[in-house]
């Protein structure tokens, strides 16, 4: 156990919620970081605020930026969110270099605050095929962090923790249940329906619903269309 600070990336989604809760379980004090990157909707940021409050984060920074200036994704440009199921190709909901951008800012806060652990809720089993969710990416960024920082050069390496890396979505739901979390506080949908409902048809909704079903855990999510 430790009482050190960990920087936890909190999007408002199920995965980041459970990743942050595991950081807390490991004894870390939580400094939460979310991003208002002019994404398609603000609902997930409201969820991020709920989640960080429920987890007792000491600080929560919502960092503003405008990735719509770059575009290139259904989440940051006027491109329809796919609703035809999870495929094998990298979908248009991939935001170019998003996790690299987010981890770089988390690394800056970690060095400034003295934290040496950064938690991110990526996983490489039940996911949409994003390249920046793979173990190779996490390992590569950890090496970059050592090379790019004063702390790393002086022998104080950073650890990029991806505790959900090898879990299925069902495993993640079970872990959230074990931790006693209110999973209904989280938000997954890429394209919210009127009334703040999950659409039920985007990749993220389908993966979320599949996780609850396979875990045998009641799904607290309100869907406009049942996945």
Automatic annotation (TrEMBL):
GO terms for molecular function: ATP binding; ligase activity, forming carbon-nitrogen bonds; zinc ion binding. Keywords: ATP-binding, Ligase, Metal-binding, Nucleotide-binding, Queuosine biosynthesis, Zinc. Pathway: Purine metabolism; 7-cyano-7-deazaguanine biosynthesis. Catalyzes the ATP-dependent conversion of 7-carboxy-7-deazaguanine (CDG) to 7-cyano-7-deazaguanine (preQ(0)). It comes from Sphingomonas kyeonggiensis. GO terms for biological process: tRNA queuosine(34) biosynthetic process. Belongs to the QueC family. SUPFAM superfamilies: Adenine nucleotide alpha hydrolases-like. Its cofactor is Zn(2+). Zn(2+) binds at residues 189, 199, 202, 205. CDD domains: QueC-like. ATP binds at residues 10-20. This is 7-cyano-7-deazaguanine synthase. Its EC number is 6.3.4.20. Binds 1 zinc ion per subunit. InterPro entries: QueC, Rossmann-like_a/b/a_fold. The lineage of its organism: Bacteria, Pseudomonadati, Pseudomonadota, Alphaproteobacteria, Sphingomonadales. Pfam families: QueC. It catalyses: 7-carboxy-7-carbaguanine + NH4(+) + 2 ATP = 7-cyano-7-carbaguanine + 2 AMP + 2 diphosphate + 2 H(+).
